[in-house]
Amino acid sequence: MKKKVTWLAGALLGLLLVMSFMRSGQVRSADAADKPNIIILFCDDLGYGDLSAYGHPTIRTPNLDRMAAEGMKFTNFYSGSPACTASRYALLTGRFPVRSGFEWVLYPKSERGIHPREWTLAEGLKSAGYATACYGKWHLGTTKKAYLPLQNGFDEYVGLPYSNDMLPPQHPPIALMEGNDTLQLNPDQAQLTALYTERAKAFIRKHKAEPFFVYLPYAMPHVPLHPGEKFAGRSPRGTYGDVVEEIDWSAGEILELLKAEGLDENTLVFFTSDNGPWIIKNELGGSAGLLRDGKGSTWEGGMRVPGIARWPGTIKAGTLQLQQASTLDLYTTCLALAGQSPPIDGRSVDGRDISALLHGKQDTTLADRPYFYYGPHVLQAVRKGPWKLHLITSSQTGRDYFNGKLPLLFNLETDPSEQYGLSDARPEIVQELMELAEQHKRQAAQEGSFWGKE
Ligand code: MG
Fold first, then answer.
1. Which of 61, 196, 350, 380 could form an S-S bond across to 392 if both were Cys, CB 3.0 to 4.6 Å?
2. Cα 302 to averaged position of ligand 1 atoms, centre (Å)
3. pLDDT at 211 > cutoff 90
């Protein structure tokens, strides 16, 4: 009997020791070792052409360039929408914006927000044992507590709950929030990028012994532009360049910390943007490079954005990824990496698991899947393989580049700038894509949103 008690006490002591080691960050449990940490760096209104890695001649982004060189650079990566709110919805739910049941941009007093029945990426990762944090722009509803980050899967939140230009006198004073509370009204925006970066670093340090998810949706380069003191006036590209170079610094800080903490090989970092550049802001807006138009438009410049994935030991350094993918896929992929599946209750989840691509494998089933480009509530274009068909076009500039001619067909591989319309030359492809669009519209209308089912 006595022997049994001693053995039991020994085993308990051993278990306590292992647990204390794990807590102190020395040992990561076998289960946790299989689940990579996930960090999503999410810019606001950064265009396809705004990083030196994507060809910008005067904006210096050495950290992001190195991240691309050490990982995978996507050239056909899409945000879920050309507008802020709808794009964030798509990233966090893996669903096309039409399924959200709310406007494509929410304002401080908008009635609706993310429906409580949506199952966000943070909720999925949290239920897989991840520590979760969001530092930055939320923009998925503020008028009810249920819409805020802490009620949608995040353990921690610090940030502005909507766009940095929604300010008095048209709007109430903007709050810098911590959790569900106001930390400060009308904060100095020049300090936001540094603040979000420091909070993200502290969270990583604190949770390095367990799987963690950090979502860092920067306030900028959305206008108004407020670079930090150390960056103001430094970039040859002007204030826009200053702000992007500060975001590059932020990414560098996080990557350096991962290296210093020995977390490089079990952390997937993904860098992208919520939509294309705000070109109607002239020099204060960014550049879509060789792509047409920008934010608010379903021309390529509105939705095709930089996409950089880094995960040393898994993603082969220097990979150029031409396969079309999107932020919706990040949802499904990150859940899969955490051993989770999207909900199977009949709701559509539109993102696909693209982890095969990250592992350097081919996934032929990805090549021909369609991608749908949404304007406000409306399906405006569809892409399949190299072909893109515009059913409706729009631009914040007010320009109609093809004098009302619709539908417009382009081959995005031979003509990424959408200059040479092929709808007359390839009627059979127009027909095929029209049918795909109709099918999708019917399905989306039939399914509706959770809001419609109250
Ligand atoms: Mg935006």
1. 380
2. 10
3. yes
